[in-house]
Amino acid sequence: MEVGFLGLGIMGKAMALNLLRHGFKVTVWNRTLSKCDELVEHGASIGETPAAVVKKCKYTIGMLSDPSAALSVVFDKDGLLEQICSGKGYIDMSTVDANTSSKISEAVTKKGGDFLEAPVSGSKKPAEDGQLVILAAGESALYEEVLPAFNVMGKKSFFLGQVGNGAKMKLVVNMIMGSMMNAFSEGLVLADSSGLNQQTLLDVLELGAIANPMFKMKGPAMIQNNYSPAFPLKHQQKDMRLALALGDENGVSMPVAAAANEAFKKARSQGLGDHDFSAVYETGKVPERSV
Ligand SMILES: NC(=O)C1=CN([C@@H]2O[C@H](COP(=O)(O)OP(=O)(O)OC[C@H]3O[C@@H](n4cnc5c(N)ncnc54)[C@H](OP(=O)(O)O)[C@@H]3O)[C@@H](O)[C@H]2O)C=CC1
Ligand SMILES: O=CCCC(=O)O
């Protein structure tokens, strides 16, 4: 199967490499073209523009940073709309809101193409290991056709019905995750400030009812102030913002998520946007008290 891939950031690079490793023919494009080089070393071809990729491939996957990037590769000059047509499919795996997804879906289907949104749960390591959870929605026939690619990139795929449902599910999941990360960060600060050992807190958490892989994976690095990015904080804040907008649309009160969003905004304003989202921990730290 020949697959196009637009967007070779942390996630896109790992996902495209997985496809190559499993024998897919992959044509890649990235806004910063030099990021294609490593993929070419692993056997990928380069498309000079999103339109050139779609012209060559029956199926094209997008993994872009945010709604504006996701729209740009579709609607801008040399964008995929210039080549999408009957018999071709576009699968947008970026995390965006349902509105953005619907705009893309309408434009693609108007040109005769098929569209699937398929955001993912799971971060850099699961992307490298082909262990993502795929939250697809849109054209069910296209879903069936691209399942071989999903099976390589992920450990489980869900088909959630009409376009928008994948985006919404992803935002709900990340809203919960972002709120949890803030509670976890506050707990680490409180433990430290009240004279407790943070590693002992991690050990206690792991044995109890709120044990979870995120605390286990991020905790040891956080207490070493290591925020090497797997999931950039700026993207987590984008997801909190989009989830809060979804809450607004549905009249859902989300005071915990709103507070978490404020903490992520503060972290961004402190220059932590490109660090891992666990760097929100920095915003809660108590300045050294003078005696
Ligand atoms: N990292 C993670 O753990 C996860 C991320 N996600 C989601 O996946 C998506 C990608 O995340 P991730 O790989 O971490 O992000 P990165 O920031 O590492 O990569 C973003 C990608 O988007 C491209 N891009 C940004 N702006 C534009 C634009 N205006 N036009 C064209 N391309 C653009 C970048 O190109 P360039 O290289 O030129 O900057 C890059 O390829 C996001 O929606 C994120 O929320 C989902 C699950 C997990
Ligand atoms: O969108 C990013 C999700 C990160 C994760 O699921 O660990």
In short:
With 291 residues, the protein is an alpha/beta fold. It has helices at 10-21, 37-41, 50-56, 67-75, 98-110, 124-129, 140-153, 165-193, 198-207, 213-223, 233-249, 255-269; strands at 2-6, 25-29, 45-46, 59-62, 89-92, 114-117, 120-121, 132-138, 154-159. The protein folds into 2 domains: 2-162, NAD(P)-binding Rossmann-like Domain (Rossmann fold, 3-Layer(aba) Sandwich); 168-284, N-(1-d-carboxylethyl)-l-norvaline Dehydrogenase, domain 2.
Report on the structure:
This protein has 291 residues and is of the alpha/beta class. It folds into two domains: 2-162, Rossmann fold (3-Layer(aba) Sandwich), CATH 3.40.50; 168-284, N-(1-d-carboxylethyl)-l-norvaline Dehydrogenase, domain 2. Helix content is 51%, strand content 13%. The protein contains twelve helices and nine strands. It has helices at 10-21, 37-41, 50-56, 67-75, 98-110, 124-129, 140-153, 165-193, 198-207, 213-223, 233-249, 255-269, and strands at residues 2-6, 25-29, 45-46, 59-62, 89-92, 114-117, 120-121, 132-138, 154-159. Helix 5 (98-110) links the parallel strand 5 and strand 6 (114-117). The longest helix has 29 residues, at 165-193. It is globular, with a radius of gyration of 20 Å. The N and C termini lie far apart (67 Å). The mean pLDDT is 97. Bound molecules: NADPH dihydro-nicotinamide-adenine-dinucleotide phosphate (NDP) and 4-oxobutanoic acid. NADPH dihydro-nicotinamide-adenine-dinucleotide phosphate is lined by residues 7-12, 30-32, 35, 63-66, 68-69, 72-73, 94-95, 120, 123-124, 230-232, 235. NADPH dihydro-nicotinamide-adenine-dinucleotide phosphate (NDP) binds at residues 7-12, 30-32, 35, 63-66, 68-69, 72-73, 94-95, 120, 123-124, 230-232, 235.
